[in-house]
Amino acid sequence: MMNISNGKKKTRNNFTKNKRIIPPEKKRISYKKKEYWKGGTLLAPVPPALVTVGTMEHPNVLTIGWTGILNTIPPKTYISVRKERYSYQMLMDNREFVINLPCTDLVKAVDFCGVRSGRDLDKFKEMHLTPAPANHVSTPLISECPLHLECKITDTINLGSHTMFLADIVGTIVSENCINQDGKLEIEKCNLLAYAHGAYFSLGKQLGTFGYSVKKKK
Ligand SMILES: Cc1cc2nc3c(=O)[nH]c(=O)nc-3n(C[C@H](O)[C@H](O)[C@H](O)COP(=O)(O)O)c2cc1C
User: Fold this and answer.
1) CA dist., res. 53 & res. 140, Å (int)
2) Residues of the chain with pLDDT > 90: what percent?
3) DSSP 211
4) For ligand 1, is residue 195 a contact (CB within 6 Å)?
């Protein structure tokens, strides 16, 4: 609710339309009452990555939700893949993959590549995705995605339903239109897609940046 004094617009609880979008502590939604469920895979959101496997001559793409960063120096990641995926043997044989982070425009392709197999059809063709050479690996990237992590597999760990492919991130490829004049990546320009509990989302408004909560006011 707005009230106006001294010609300046003020809002109750410091809650202005665009600037302060995080409510003060007293106004937080209460999540205190809990239910207890059995252990499961409910970590959300995760990136629904379009992972490319194989080579330029024989590429395939599948959607992967079970991925993450494991180490900073050296940069390490993983993808967890079921043995029955067509991509599984390609990963075993080629020992490389590319994590392509999709933008919101690609949500249909992301879902399609996660429910149809490269055994049966060419997912690049069906979804109008363009494989293009990467920099450090023989696996192609997907041109339509804004960000790409080039990965070389170092270990495989059978965990049960899935095999974890541990990998070094040997290169990062960033689309030029997401880089500003100072050479910095402007991540909001990537329009990244998120996946949470079986549904796809776009990212919301930026709420802060790393360390902002302790930053001294100028
Ligand atoms: C959002 C989403 C996330 C997925 N995450 C994984 C995953 O982490 N690991 C996996 O093995 N399959 C995952 N899948 C299923 C595979 O992408 C799917 O079985 C795909 O058809 C396999 O393709 P392929 O047979 O061409 O390798 C996911 C599917 C969707 C839609």
Assistant:
1) 8
2) 85
3) T
4) yes
Classify residue 168 by burial, with Cβ atoms within 10 Å: 0-12, 13-18, 19+.
Answer: middle
66 CB neighbour count, 10 Å cutoff = 17
Nearest-5° Cα angle at 9, 4 to 10: 85
pLDDT digits (tens, 9 = 90+) for 48-99: 999 999 999 999 999 999 999 999 999 999 999 999 999 999 999 999 999 9
CA–centroid distance, 185 to ligand 1, in Å, is 29
| Encoded tokens for 13 | 């609880």
3-class state of residue 152 by DSSP: strand
Whether ligand 1 lies within 6 angstroms of the CB of 52 is answered as: no
Q: Which residue matches tokens 């707005």? A: 2
User: Atom 7 of ligand 1 has which residue's CA nearest to it?
Assistant: 64
**Domains defined along the chain, listed by start:** 49-200 (2.30.110.10)
Ligand 1: atom nearest CA of 67 is 8
pLDDT at 26 over 90: no
Backbone angles phi, psi at 209, to 5 degrees: -125, 165
Q: Which atom of ligand 1 is nearest to the CA of 88?
A: 27
Which residues, 6+ apart, have CB-to-CB distance to 16 below 8 Å?
A: none
Compute, in angstroms, the gap from residue 168 CA to the centroid of ligand 1. 21
